[in-house]
Amino acid sequence: MGKRFHYGGQAVIEGVMMRGRNSTAVAVRRPNGEIALRRDPLATLFAGRIRDIPLLRGPIVLLETLVLGVRALFYSASVSLEEEEQTISTAMLWGIVILGFALALGLFVALPLLIVHYIDPYITSMVSNIVDGIIRLVVFLIYLKVLDLMPDIRRVWAYHGAEHKTINAYEAGEDLEVDRIRPYGTAHTRCGTGFILIVLVVAILAHAFLGRPPMWIRFLERLAILPVVGAVSYEFIKFSADHMKSRLVKIILIPGLALQAMTTREPDDSQLEVAISALKRVLADDAGSPAELAEETASVTGMAGGAEGLHL
After folding, report:
1. The whole model's pTM is what?
2. Which of 7, 109, 194, 300 has a CA 20 to 30 Å removed from the CA of 279?
């Protein structure tokens, strides 16, 4: 028997992306209630043997998350706007992505270093780096709280909850039906929110021994060490997923699960249907029966209020 594969995905605009062994599927609710579904095969880099090499696979997964996430975001944006006669150019979408990266670097790297710069004369080198990490963690929590004030983001959080519920039900052996999935929780041990928390904690430990060079060098050091921090953090997440019966692992994961209360919301049935459509698509690909999946997903889509069909 082959090694168990851990399915997962992410929320996008009015939809959910799921990643399987061989492909990804993005299901998005159209303005008219239908579900649009796009399937893409995985590149060799993301599905080949290199992804099984410890430590090296962490940076690969981070790159994969970026590439697949941006592609899914672009698709969901185009689908959600198509019937409102609005358009958003690829250049504008890339501009938003680049602006997001710049904002992330400013908030989570430059700002903590700037704050620490003014208290450095009163603390030691190691304490300075630890305080920098703690400030970064606080900024992250404030950032999530501010995002939660936006109605559009709260809808994305609901799709995030739908993704988690669907994966939780699937891993428990449930049928992929709304009534069977609805009772499951919106938290999941492999959530990206929990992963970011682990990255922030590992970064505190890694940065503690980097000394106290000029601020611009400290900024570059944090960027350079990020792949290593991500690799170690990913190995922890993977170990945890394979040892969920361990009481110690369950205790360690409690903060990450609690943090997901800020990035998930209880989904409605129509949002669950979208997540089901995406997961069924990649499951069928992995089973080698995409035609059978199309029929199954169409029946799921028909249950949605106002849904009229499935568009591949």
Report:
1. 0.84
2. 194
